[in-house]
Every structure is written in structure tokens, then in C-alpha cells.
User: Fold this.
Amino acid sequence: MFYIQIDFNSDEALYMQLRNQIIYGLANDVIHEGDSLPSVRQLADTIGINMHTVNKAYAVLRQEGFVKLDRRRGAVISVDADKMQAVKDLYSDLSVVLAKASCKGVSRSEIHDVVDKILNSYEEEDGQTDAV
Amino acid sequence: MFYIQIDFNSDEALYMQLRNQIIYGLANDVIHEGDSLPSVRQLADTIGINMHTVNKAYAVLRQEGFVKLDRRRGAVISVDADKMQAVKDLYSDLSVVLAKASCKGVSRSEIHDVVDKILNSYEEEDGQTDAV
DNA sequence: ATAGTGTTCTATCAAATATAGAACAAGTAT
DNA sequence: ATACTTGTTCTATATTTGATAGAACACTAT
Assistant:
């Protein structure tokens, strides 16, 4: 298990890196709805971090509506697609980022190009690899 | 002085809130190239935080190429528009945000709409207010 | 000279991060 | 039933970050 890359020299918190990696996996169709994530202990052992750090990442993902907890199957991918909330979150997440880019002279069309480039990268990835 | 709003109950660091507010001011044309920012001590006193916290925000803004230090005028807005770097930064800043939105079912066109909505809000603001 | 720039140094306190070990209720496997 | 695994919760500790504070420095403006 599996594709997750953790950078121990990063200034980003380990549990946040882990959360992000799982979201990337979802966006790139490497992880799918209904998949079981490894147990907190197992994943912690695999990537060499503490159980509680993985648990925190899972708790965040649950809070954000990406996983649900099935007592028999552990943490299961179950995306709660609250569209209204998602658009709200997107708006606040983008505001600072776009302001910064705009100040730096990145044009509207260039911003749209970057967005498309990122979105296209999801579809180019093959989603058939059984990663978990 | 002036439009800056700090939320002491936010989980976001004060110096980062301050940095963001100044970038918002730039994007919304409330602060302009060549404007002097208040001194670290003065701004700290105005918004009720420590001098070193303001200094850290200024240091970050300098590091990111938004202000330069003029010994006679203090911190002066001077946007170093390194387009290549700005697009790179935009790309990495957007990757997690867009992955999250994409997982939540926000479509490509909806994302572009949010981007345009944010960018349009900059142009709607009048930039004639002498804020500093 | 006096006062004001940003900056740098030490210091302290609170909070966040990561680690560790132990235990719990619930479910699975044998 | 027994043993094991699931996420979760509790206490505890070490490290780092964020925010505060006071002092001082080199430089500039008046």
C-alpha cells in the first residue's frame, strides 16, 4: 500500500499531507467510492508514521465528507457530495490564491488555462489500477 | 488606517491574515504600486497586535515579492511580477483545492464560473479610495 | 540631537504537531 | 467462546510554531 508519498521535510503537517494524498487519489480515480482504506495501524506502519497521525487524517476526511466508518470494513470511501457546501468551500479556498496570482499579473485566461490543465490531468490518468 | 479586518478567533495565523488582507487590498486596487505601508509599530498599534507579528507579515510579503524596503519610506508596495513563478505557484496552490472540488462533484464549468466570479469582483470595486 | 524606519537578538508563554502506550466498544474470524 | 482487528479515546511527552515582549542596531528624515 500504495502510491502515497510523504515528505518528512515539508512544512506541511503529516496528517494534512496524508489527507491531500487521499483526495488526489480520489480525483485521479486511483481510489474509488466504496473502497476500504487501510486500517490506521496498518497504514501508519506502511508509511512509517504514528497511528494517531493517520487517525487524525481519517478524522479530517470524515469531517469533510470523504469517508464513512463501517465497523466491519473500517474506513470506507463515501463522498458526501454536498454541492452547495463544496462551491462555498471552493470560493473561499480560491479567493486568496486568485488574488495573489492576479496581483502578479497572471491574466484571466491564463488562470483558466491552469485550471483546465489540472482538471485534464485527472482524466488522463488511468483509473483501472487496483491501488488498495 | 484602514480596511484591514483581523479575526482573533480564526485558526489562521495573525501574520497570515494580515498578509492576505494586504494581497486582497492589492487585488481590489485599494492599495497601489508605490504606496507606503504603515510602519510595523504603527500598524501593530492600530490593529492591536504585536510589532513582531506585523514584521513577520511584511517579511513574508517581501519574500513573496509584494513589497520592497525603502530605508526612507519604510515598506513600499512593489510587485515583482515574475510571471513564470506566479503561474507555478498558482498551479501548486490550485491542485489540492481543485481536486477537492472535483471529488465533490463540482463540474469544470462551475469551477470556471467561481473563478470568474472572484475575478469580476476585483474590477467592480472602485480603486479610488485613498486607503493608506 | 531627536524621532522614526525595518531588522535582529534573546526570552517567554500558549497552541499545534507528532509521538507513545493503554484501553474501550463493536465487529470478524477461527 | 476465544482471539484478533476495527476506529476511537484517554493521558503523556517532546518538538515546533505562533504571538508576545523588551532591547538594541544601522540607517534616514527633520
